[in-house]
Amino acid sequence: MHLARTTALALAGLLTLTAPTPAAAAAPAAPRLPAPTGSHAVGVTSLHLKDASRSDPWVPAAKSRELMVSLWYPAAGTRGRQQAPYVTPKESELLIKDAELPIAPDTLSKVRTNAFTDAVPAGRKHSLPLVVLSPGLGSPRSSLTSLAEDLASRGNVVVGIDHTYESVATAFPDGRVTTCVACGNKDPDFGEQVVRSRAADVSFVLDQLTGAKPKWRGAALIDRSRIGMAGQSVGGASSIAAMVRDQRIRAGVNLDGTTFAPIPERGLARPFLFMGSPTMHSPGGKDGSWGRDWKKLTGWKRWLVVTGAEHASFTDVPLLAEQLGIDLGFAMTGARSVEITRTYVAAFFTRHLTGKPQPLLDKPSAHYPEVTFGG
């Protein structure tokens, strides 16, 4: 697996990308994300966090590890608030340039989201589960926005992390925009380096949100005993590494990511969900890491394979590509892949962070015939 360059379309986490069709030049402006399915309005805010205890793993001259994160959460009201941007214009420009797409440089900054910037958080003190989201290599945290908004609408706080120098574009409040230094790394153990670095990022972010002096004004809403993590591609692999490192993470999801750092021989007893594409992640498929690690998952576990899905199907990319007239050649529509990802990830966290039964996870569903149970 070519981890050092997993994205031809950086926003997607794609391994390959079909050439855009001629229709892309005439694609409609302002694509939009589907409405969340939960009952809560959604707010979002961004935080700039600095870990002075370690230097940056990819740019050692940076003596502190700096991160940009987004927090999506149930909102008390959205009156007077603006819909949040998907990415900044500069981030959009760099992502589109990297993918060599024939669309206007600011196109992705015009994507219509469903969350409102800095809306007042809603909920009782220490009542909301916290879910961490980690994107694929080269991809920004925004690539999982549809999933984040949906989880927040269902009553969770969701924190999406931009792992600095691992995304094609990360904008900071002072105007800096970092690029993907790590994408050019050719070390043989690069995959393991990435997931261990991300695990450290996750622990730091949890400290900043649940410690004695939390950096978010709504942090008191978080139930520190109910924390989960999900990610796509190397972000999914990082879910395992983060759980091995940090006992605070009670449940994890890997969306189509090779697990470069194996589970230790002692095993991992907390709930875990594998959800992947058939080419790479069917039992006995091209990626043997899931079969290896499946045996070391000693607690509740599921292995779901989504027929028709590709590597990027667990992100916003297919949905946005279709609206922009870009043919990725995927068998499954973007709307359907978002629906399936949202539904199963939400069911997993509802079951394991709130204790509510979720029959969807117990057997195949006639509503989702694409989803088969493996392992």
Please, how many helices?
8
**Roughly what fraction of the amino acids lie in strands?**
15-25%
- Could you give the order of the helices and strands? EEHEEEHEEEHEHEEHHEHHE
Terminal-residue CA separation: 21 Å
Residue stretches low in confidence (pLDDT < 50, at least 5 long) are 1-27
Rg, Å, rounded: 19 Å
Shape: globular
- In terms of quaternary structure, what is this? single chain
Q: Indicate the percent of residues in helices.
A: 10-25%
The mean pLDDT is 92
Give a short synopsis of this structure:
By secondary structure, the chain is of the alpha/beta class. Helix content is 24%, strand content 21%.
Structure description:
Helices cover 24% and strands 21% of the residues. The chain has eight helices and 13 strands. The chain has helices spanning 89-99, 145-153, 190-210, 234-245, 278-281, 289-294, 317-323, 334-354; strands at residues 41-51, 65-77, 115-117, 120-121, 128-134, 157-162, 170-171, 177-178, 222-232, 249-255, 272-276, 301-306, 371-373. Helix 2 packs across helix 8, helix 3 (190-210) packs across helix 4 and helix 7 runs antiparallel to helix 8 (334-354). The longest helix is centred in the middle third of the chain and has 21 residues, at 190-210. The radius of gyration is 19 Å and the shape is globular. The two termini are 21 Å apart. The model is unreliable at 1-27 (pLDDT under 50).
